[in-house]
Amino acid sequence: MKKNLLYFTALVTLLLSACSKKQDPTPNFQEDNLAPLSIEFDNIVGGRTLTFNNTAVPYTNAKGEPFTVSMIQYFISNVKVTTNEGKEYVVKQDSSYFLIKGSDKTTRFAKVKVPEGDYSKLTFILGVDSLRSTMPIDRRTGVLDPATGGSMDNGGMYWGWNSGYIFFRLEGNSNLISDDQKGDPTGKKQFKYHIGFFGGYDVPTLNNIRSVTIDLNNAGIAKVRKDRQSNIHLFVDLMQVFNGKNSFSIKENPNVMFGEFSSKIADNFPQLFTHDHTEN
User: Fold this and answer.
1) C-alpha count within 13 angstroms, C-beta hemisphere, residue 238
2) What is the signed CA dihedral for 152, 153, 155, 156, rounded to 10 degrees?
3) What is the pLDDT of residue 151?
4) Number of domains forming the structure of the chain
């Protein structure tokens, strides 16, 4: 009798365990157990939809400066997801580089594959890591091909003279920009923020790579399954470029590319991203 009771108890425990795993699978980190996950980068400006060159109703930053946006592009890379139990999965690096272009909505999704499981934290880099930046050109294909996008005038994201990627490129206009040497001599009142630099190869430089971590618990964890695609929807608020940790004036800093101030702008990057919801 005792033996039968022990057998029955073990059987019930096994069945409950199997049922639990089916409802809330523990990630099996094997390459043959991967399922689709997408991350959507939805560009906004201070709670408003991003509209290019909207001179009729310009945006206004915390300094009271009106401005419009004419271009926004940035690299997302090194995607990682984590369960509530702290188990991490790092997406294969060769499949973890994306160029988000505000003018091309088809690029707003970063699509990766991760093991089935329930994930409560998302981590990624805004920029291109130093290892990939210094690899031979044949290891930098797709969006990392320096020739992709063409010249700087056509949206290029690579400084040929510096052999380095532009991680974040934001351009626009503000009628408060002066026509002197600090502003735009063409009279178009342009501002340009081209933020790059990964720390240097053989000579130390600025390091403007920034890691971003998103807690998914409050607006819905990602329940990744093979039979459907989970989508993490993020808002990317470009207003935080000006109003973030290091707020600044467009008029006083209309063009930032190479100097120390570029790091102050990079420090604002993590504040651009907020989790709106997750579709499972």
Assistant:
1) 27
2) -20
3) 73
4) 1
